[in-house]
Amino acid sequence: MEHQEEMDYFKVLEEKIGELINRVSSLKNENKSITAKAAEQEKIIADLKGELDNQKSARDKTRIRIQSILDKIDKMDL
Questions:
Q1: Please, what sign has the CA dihedral across residues 25, 29, 34, 38?
Q2: How many CB atoms lie within 10 A of CB 52?
Q3: SS3 assignment for 7-30
Q4: What is the DSSP letter of 33?
Q5: Residue by residue, what is the 3-state secondary structure of 26-57?
Q6: pLDDT tens series, the chain, 78 aa
Q7: What is the C-alpha to C-alpha distance for residues 57 and 67, in angstroms, rounded to an integer?
Q8: By 3-state DSSP, what share of the chain in percent is helix, strand and coil, each rounded to 5?
Q9: pTM for the full predicted model
């Protein structure tokens, strides 16, 4: 009887280890997926920051040109 109980314990232990291995494998795959998505999001953020910087630069140039035109108008004797 004891021998059978020991075998049952080993069987349960093997099943638990198998489940654990499967879970670890699943978590590793999930981690890879999340890491890839995070890298993709970081690239999108970097692209958007670059676009925002370009828009700010264009806005600043436009502001300077408008101010220059307004200064010229102010200097005119109207």
A1: positive
A2: 10
A3: HHHHHHHHHHHHHHHHHHHHHHHH
A4: H
A5: HHHHHHHHHHHHHHHHHHHHHHHHHHHHHHHH
A6: 577 777 888 999 999 999 999 999 999 999 999 999 999 999 999 999 999 999 999 999 999 999 999 999 989 876
A7: 15
A8: 95, 0, 5
A9: 0.65
**Whole-angstrom distance, CA of residue 59 vs CA of residue 14:** 67
Distance of CA 76 to CAs 26, 50, 56, 63, 70, Å?
Answer: 75, 40, 30, 20, 10
**6 Cα distance to chain centroid:** 49
Backbone dihedral region of 2: left (phi > 0), alpha (psi from -120 to 50 degrees) or beta? alpha
DSSP 76: S
